[in-house]
Amino acid sequence: MNNNATQVVLKNRGRLSVRIVVVVLLCSSILTLLTTAVQLYFDYQKDVKTIHSNIQFIQDSYLPAIISSVYTLDEKQVEILLEGSLNILDIEYIEIEDRSKNLFKSVGNSTVSRDVTKVFPLNFTTPSGKVISVGILKVFASLEGIYHRLLEKAFVILLSNTVKTFFASILFLMIINHMVVRHLISISNFTRTLNLDKLCKKLILNQKFSKIVEPDELGQLVHSINAMIDNIKSDADKIKKIQSSLQEREDYLKSIFNTAENVAFIITDLAGENTTILDISPGAEKIFGYTRDETVGKKAALLYPPRIVAGFPMMQAGLSKNDIKYSGEITLIRKSGERFPALFTIYPKLDNKGNIGGTISVAIDITEQKQAEKELHLSNKRYQNIFQYSPVPLWEEDFTELYQYIEEHRTKNV
After folding, report:
1. pLDDT confidence bin for 10, thresholds 50/70/90
2. SS3 320
3. Residue 233 contacts by C-beta under 8 Å, 6 or more apart in sequence?
């Protein structure tokens, strides 16, 4: 691995861990806020119920004594009772009005918010059973104390959870780095340097207990990578064998193309009567008398009579894969203008996608064979005439005279 790749790995090795920790912190913070809000809500409901319970406690414990003290106009006793009621949690202000609704006595802060108000009639019952109204008791409770306590509690909860989450995240970061990130970096470094020359090397992680317990997700990933390497190695070996086979076949075909002196190979495109020569073999140079430079890029019509050139479009249109369109005897033209007979076969030339992109023509000069056939035909005809017009009967067993006659005529002809 080069220096640039190393720098990239060192620069990015903490990004995953940092992102995980940030996500954990965000999720933990959101969860903490939600749980804190729920907890504060229930605490608020509980404190409000406590206020009503405290007011009920004043009614049950202090109200009878307050009624009696107001009836007897014992202001000192009334003040003591009111001060005692004021000491109850969240009770901020208490006042007594007389029957004329004038203020008789009050304790506490009259300017405080009066969130909860409770009014109790002060009715005194005489020994004879007569009920006398002596005034009204008003009790005021504020929620400010509840809000203050909830705020303090929220601060404590959030601070403690933040500290706990922070240290838990650091520990979580260390665990993630040790159990996951360092192995991911090893896998990244291994795959970064992997090439066809290192397919024999296997990926092994430095994991404890990996041989004892079942493989985890990282172990399964390593197994998959090693299996992939084995598959690539197997495919690479097959490809090498195929390439070697193709190379041998190509070399063999090239050797035939270059060494067959009595066979002409002509490679052309598909352009009908304007078909262009793409390549010719050394044998074609010898047979036609042209050099390769004199033919490549030229029209194929210089090698064929006009009648055959006119049939190029139909012949090329009928080509199909793995099929010989034409094979037979035709007349070709040498550079000197001489026409000669040849055995001719045309094959489709396929490109890399398997489509027909041109033709490969194979021509064999059969001038000598034709001449030999002609001479053989003349010879057979000559001897046939000899036997037909021979003065010596052919059915005699002694052919000595016949042989002498044939020899004399052969000598004269020579």
Report:
1. very low
2. coil
3. 199, 200
Please tell me the predicted confidence (pLDDT) of residue 56.
93
What residue type is assigned to position 224 of the chain? Answer: S
- Ramachandran sector of residue 322 (left: φ over 0; alpha: ψ -120 to 50; beta: rest): left
Please check whether residue 331 is in contact with residue 309, taking contact to mean a CB–CB distance below 8 angstroms.
Answer: no
Alpha helix segments (H runs only) across 92-216: 144-176, 182-192
- Which segments within 79-115 are labelled E, that is strand? 91-97, 103-108
Query: Interior CA angle at 205 toward 202 and 209, to 5°?
Result: 125
At which residue do the structure tokens 């004199």 appear?
Answer: 294
Q: Which two tokens stand for residue 289?
A: 């008398």
Read off the tokens for 377.
Answer: 């035909």
pLDDT of 396:
46
- In this structure, of 56-60, 139-143, 284-288, 321-325, the range with the lowest mean pLDDT score is 321-325
- The neighbouring-strand residues paired with 342 are 330, 365
Distance CA 362, CA 283 (A): 10
Any idea which residue has 């490969």 for tokens? 360
Write the secondary structure of 31-64 as one string of H (helix), E (strand) and C (coil).
HHHHHHHHHHHHHHHHHHHHHHHHHHHHHHHCHH
